[in-house]
Specification:
Layout lengths: L2 H39 L6 H9 L3 H19 L2 H19 L10
Helix pairs in contact: 1-2, 1-3, 3-4
């Protein structure tokens, strides 16, 4: 098998794995969102079933980390090394912005 054939096979495997992980991620996100909405609707009372559903999606962060790892590896197959580095840099920048403490007007720390 040539190097190009091997890269094509690896890319196809990564794309299939990302699609699988992304589907599971979306299902768990929908479950989590609907459980939270019901808890709010019930005024946070008698929500045992919803709490059990939220516990059922406890692996959500690990799944997302694996999904992001596969997506990151796909960049190497989809773009030039320079463009992949630019995309990774932008993703890191957005992540830092999202995780930075948000200042709220009118509030002191």
């Amino acid at each position: 098998m040539s190097i190009e054939d091997e890269r094509r096979r690896e890319r196809a495997e990564l794309e299939a794995e990302f699609a699988r992980l992304d589907t599971v991620y979306e299902v768990l996100a929908d479950m989590q969102d609907s459980a939270v909405a019901v808890v709010r609707e019930k005024g946070f009372e008698n929500v045992g079933f919803e709490e059990s559903r939220l516990k059922g999606v406890s692996g959500f962060r690990e799944l997302n980390a694996e999904r992001e790892w596969v997506r990151d590896r796909l960049l190497d197959y989809q773009f030039s090394p320079e463009r992949a580095a630019q995309i990774r840099s932008r993703i890191a920048e957005l992540r830092r912005e999202r995780e930075a403490p948000q200042e709220r007007p009118g509030r002191s720390r």
